């Protein structure tokens, strides 16, 4: 195996997340500003994407006090109605994720006086009352791929995504490229669950992959990933060790199956909570430019791996990661995105 990591970069550090639903009241210049926050279908469950957005809001409250509450989206067909409802009650609406792309376009046109903060999305067109924030997921995926390729013992690893949205496919594209840059002989299987909520589907997909000698799975799939972690725990305890690479936040604790032992090798992190804080500060202080898309990456501290990775003790891996982070930060590596990855 050629250890490309010796030539490249990454230094186990990095970032957080965003998403939720509710209202905020921010008092500024003697004016009351109401902000409506909408969750996706993941709701406000522990460590969900929406919960991490909520954390970002709460963190900003420490700087600028305001009242908050949230409402959870329950079904797909509620998206437009909920957005319009929030737009009529609030001056600003926070929207999480690309599943809202069509609904945001319609709602923003129907409510031109309302400002929309569209998080973790890459819309092709934006109205003048929408500001979008997205991430270079391919960078986080690339780091995960370097780690997986330098850790696998079977030379068979996999990716399980939720819906085949651009952000998910960018994770996959970066992951595949990272693996191939280390060792092009490694087999990488890319699959989609076509949803973010079916825990059992994640379990079944992962169980099948582990049983066919895939020993590392990168799961970028919302609650589907919980099923992947459960399958990894069972397989590790009953047969032999396998790994999961988590997503969005540090999932090490979710993978614990015995004292000090976790099936989570590392996690590809997006600091969405930090993104929430930054965009709220700009919007509420009237320095934000609406009608634009803001992309956050490894240079802004928005992408990376956890600061501590108990399962990454191999010095060659940690050295490679440090080098890759430096190379990505200085644009020495050109990464493919969602148009360059095949899936099952």
Summed up:
This protein is α/β, with parallel strands linked by helices and 344 residues long. 35% of the residues lie in helices and 22% in strands.
Q: What is the tally of beta strands?
A: 16
Distance between the termini: 26 Å
Number of domains: 2
Q: Tell me, what's the shape?
A: globular
| Class from helix and strand fractions | alpha/beta
Unreliable runs: 1-30
Largest sheet: 7 strands, mixed
Q: What is the radius of gyration computed over CA atoms, rounded to a whole number of angstroms?
A: 20 Å
Oligomer: single chain
CATH class of the largest domain: Alpha Beta
Strand content: 15-25%
Percent range for helical residues? 25-40%
Write the element-wise H/E pattern from the N-terminal end onward.
Answer: EEEHEHEHEEHEHEHEHEEEEHEEH
Please, what is the average pLDDT? 86
* Tally of helical runs: 9
CATH topology of the largest domain: Rossmann fold
Strand order of the largest sheet: 4-2-3-5-6-7-15
Report on the architecture of this protein:
The chain has 2 domains: 4-12 and 137-270 and 302-340, Rossmann fold, CATH 3.40.50.2300; 22-135 and 272-300, Response regulator (Rossmann fold, 3-Layer(aba) Sandwich), CATH 3.40.50. The chain has 344 residues and is an alpha/beta fold. Helices cover 35% and strands 22% of the residues. It has helices at residues 49-61, 79-89, 101-110, 137-151, 166-182, 199-211, 224-238, 272-284, 315-329, and strands spanning 9-10, 22-28, 31-37, 66-69, 92-96, 115-119, 130-135, 156-161, 187-192, 216-220, 243-248, 256-258, 261-262, 264-270, 293-296, 303-304. α2 packs parallel to α3 (101-110) and α6 packs parallel to α7 (224-238). The longest helix is centred in the middle third of the chain and has 17 residues, at 166-182. The protein is built from 9 helices and 16 strands. The model is unreliable at 1-30 (pLDDT under 50). The strands form 3 sheets. Strands 4-2-3-5-6-7-15 form a 7-stranded mixed beta sheet, with helices on both faces. Strands 9-8-10-11-14-16 form a 6-stranded mixed beta sheet, with helices on both faces. A two-stranded antiparallel ribbon has the order 12-13.
């Amino acid at each position: 195996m050629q250890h490309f990591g010796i030539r490249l970069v990454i230094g186990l550090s990095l970032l957080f997340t965003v998403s939720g639903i509710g209202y905020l009241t921010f008092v500024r210049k003697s004016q009351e500003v109401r902000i409506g926050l909408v969750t996706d279908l993941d709701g406000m469950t522990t460590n969900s994407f929406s919960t991490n957005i909520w954390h970002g809001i709460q963190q900003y409250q420490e700087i600028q006090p305001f009242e908050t509450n949230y409402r959870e989206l329950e079904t797909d067909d509620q998206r437009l109605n909920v957005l319009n409802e929030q737009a009529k009650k609030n001056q600003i609406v926070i929207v999480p994720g690309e599943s809202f792309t069509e609904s945001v376009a319609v709602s923003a046109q129907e409510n031109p006086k309302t400002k929309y903060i569209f998080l973790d999305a890459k819309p092709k067109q934006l109205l003048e009352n929408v500001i979008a924030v997205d991430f270079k997921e391919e960078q986080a995926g690339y780091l995960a791929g370097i780690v997986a390729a330098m850790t696998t013992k079977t030379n068979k690893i996999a990716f399980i995504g939720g819906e085949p949205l651009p952000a998910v496919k960018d994770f996959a594209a970066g992951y595949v490229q990272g693996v191939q840059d280390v060792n092009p002989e490694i087999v990488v299987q890319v699959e989609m669950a076509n949803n973010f909520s079916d825990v059992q589907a994640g379990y079944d997909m992962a169980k099948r992959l582990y049983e066919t000698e895939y020993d590392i799975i990168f799961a970028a799939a919302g609650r589907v990933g919980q099923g992947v972690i459960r399958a990894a725990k069972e397989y590790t305890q009953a047969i032999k060790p396998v790994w999961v690479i988590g997503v969005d936040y540090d999932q090490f604790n979710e993978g614990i199956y015995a004292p000090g032992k976790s099936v989570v090798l590392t996690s590809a992190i997006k600091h969405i909570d930090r993104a929430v804080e930054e965009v709220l500060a700009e919007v509420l202080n009237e320095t934000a430019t609406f009608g634009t898309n803001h992309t956050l990456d490894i240079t802004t501290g928005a992408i990376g791996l956890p600061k501590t990775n108990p399962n990454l003790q191999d010095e060659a891996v940690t050295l490679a990661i440090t080098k890759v982070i430096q190379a990505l930060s200085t644009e020495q590596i050109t990464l493919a995105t969602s148009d360059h990855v095949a899936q099952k």
